[in-house]
Amino acid sequence: MWDFEHPPFALELAKRYRIDRMMPSECAASLAEGRADIGLVPIASLAMSPGLRILPGCTIASKGRVRSLLLIHRANQSPESLRSVAADVASRTTLAYARIMFHKWGNPEVPFLPLTANLDLMLDSADAAIVIGDPALLALEERFNRLERTGEELVYRDLAEEWHVMTGLPFVSAVWAIACGAAAPAGLSDEMVAGDFVRSRDHGLENIDVIVSEWASRVPIPESTIRSYLTADIHYILDDECVAGMRGFFKMAAEYGVLPPYTVAVEELAAH
Q1: pTM of this structure
Q2: Which end of the chain has fewer CB atoms surrounding its CB within 10 Å, N or C?
Q3: Can you give the pLDDT at residue 75?
Q4: Residue 71: beta bridge partners?
């Protein structure tokens, strides 16, 4: 969102877009209900709202480890033996990926218990925990302190890395989606809108040190960890490999009954 918040493009973009900030799941609902035209949505929501189309160019994905999506369980257990999983409900997409992986681990019926992201409370209530976002990054930072405090040895499974090892595919979390016909009233084509977002992404990557410094003052995570996360762990380009990753995800999600069938229109998603 760099260009939308910084000169020299912010004033120009403000004439074309009004920005409303909300959780990704709320973005998907706003698009589906016609309250927004464009949104950064978890990819699972595409299968629930098939009238949306993907804006080419940008994504939030990982091609290896990501560190902010964790399955945490006790060291004396394995995914195959888990009887319950406390799940942070912040991301339907992450839970869909996890459901597919539990099918492949041979434990498809393990219940997911919706709980807030507090690792101690989650592990008091279930055999394992799915922790997402900043709480996951904080859990990794605090893992040795927790071991000293509790004496309990835990396994921290990076779900994006597990997915890549299991399937050979990237873990695609979110894309920009646009409601059908939404750009027409403003006289903008999908190509023009995609160009605005791709340019903003590229300028954000050019100013990564500023972004790292800003976030280091907001969250109790070392600056070096934030820089590595934003530059090495997250992949921002919706390239052919990520499109293939999305196709694989939706295919498996439909096969296992995790999501309704959904087909990615590959011809519309040339990499930018």
Answers
A1: 0.92
A2: N
A3: 96
A4: 130, 157
68: helix, coil or strand?
A: coil
Question: Is residue 91 located within the same domain as residue 212?
Answer: no
What sign results for the dihedral spanned by CA atoms 25, 232, 160, 250? Answer: positive
Asked if residue 174 and residue 135 are part of one domain, the reply reads no
The low-confidence residues of the chain, meaning pLDDT below 50, are 267, 270-272
| 264, 183: one domain | yes
Q: Residue 183 has what pLDDT? A: 65
Q: Which domain holds residue 111?
A: 69-167
Residue 26 CB: number of other CB atoms within 10 A? 15
What CA–CA distance (Å, rounded) separates 141 from 143?
6
Q: How far is CA 149 from CA 142, 146, 209, 252, in A?
A: 10, 5, 34, 40
Q: Are residues 116 and 148 in the same domain?
A: yes
How far is 143 from 221, CA to CA, in rounded Å? 13
Which residue carries 């976030």 as its tokens? 215
Burial class (CB in 10 A: 0-12, 13-18, 19+), 44: buried
**Confidence (pLDDT) at 113:** 96
CATH number, residue 199: 3.40.190.10
Angle at 160 between CA 158 and CA 163, to 5 degrees: 105
